[in-house]
Amino acid sequence: MVLAILNVTINSIFSILLTRLVKAIAIPSYSSLSKMTILLCIYGLVAIPWGLKTNFLRWDICKSKQLIFKITATSLIAPALIEEIFFRVSLLPYPLEQIQPNSWFAWSLLSLFCFIIYHPLNAFTFFPQGKETFSNPVFLCLATGLGIIYTLTYWQSGSLWLPVFVHWLVVVIWLLCWGGLSKLNFK
Questions:
Q1: What pLDDT does 9 receive?
Q2: What is the pTM assigned to this prediction?
Q3: Whole-angstrom distance, CA of residue 43 vs CA of residue 13
Q4: Main-chain phi, psi angles of 160, to 5 degrees
Q5: Are the beta carbons of 186 and 175 closer than 8 angstroms?
């Protein structure tokens, strides 16, 4: 009896997650792209000066073509695609689902909390070279701002692709231009 209930529950959860993923593959509208661009520009106007002031960011352009290619290619899958599928698509109700705004907001807070906590947990378990960076309060604040942007972008567009693109772009620029490689001890 318990196994039957557990099986039904697992099948229901899998069905919900698969439905959300299929819906989230939607192509975003131009309007969504415009709104995301505005959010990202506002974020940059705050994050870059603050990152420079706290010495978290420093201009350091990677010159290795091999490393540029590797970072550009792999960052699309991890962290961008994997994290956005989990933290946005899996944890958040699809934006067009019939759900009360307060419930969506609560799920958004849970998703954001998981996104923030994930970084130091990842560093202390699977990515030890990121311990210092991923537990740095400046990094965590910047990641929180980005998590909010990813969530708003997903909520507004209903598309996985905009948060994935923004996540990928921010990671690549940070690693290749703003000293992220040296912070994470990449060779």
A1: 82
A2: 0.93
A3: 34
A4: -65, -30
A5: yes
- What's the whole-number average pLDDT of the chain? 94
User: Is residue 5 very low, low, confident or very high in pLDDT (cuts 50, 70, 90)?
Assistant: low
Query: What is the amino acid identity at position 180?
Result: G
| CA gap 85, 119 in Å, rounded | 16
Which H or E element spans position 43? Answer: helix 30-53
Domain ranges, ordered by start, for the chain: 2-183
Residue range 22-69, pLDDT digits in tens: 999 999 999 999 999 999 999 999 999 999 999 999 999 999 999 999
How many beta carbons lie within 10 A of that of residue 12, not counting itself?
10
For 22, the token pair is 């299929």
How many CA within 13 A on the CB side of residue 110?
12
CA distance 176 to 68: 7
Question: How many residues are listed for the chain in this entry?
Answer: 187
In a 10 Å sphere around its CB, with 0-12 CB exposed, 13-18 middle and 19+ buried, how is residue 122 labelled?
middle
**What share of the chain has pLDDT > 90, as a percent?**
89
CA dihedral 76→79→81→86, nearest 10 degrees, is: 180
Sign of CA dihedral 91, 92, 98, 100: positive
Residues 156 and 32: beta-carbon distance below 8 Å: yes
Q: For the stretch 102-113, what's the b/e string if a residue is b when 16 or more beta carbons lie within 10 angstroms of its beta carbon?
A: eebeeebeebbe
What average pLDDT does range 112-116 have in this prediction?
Answer: 98
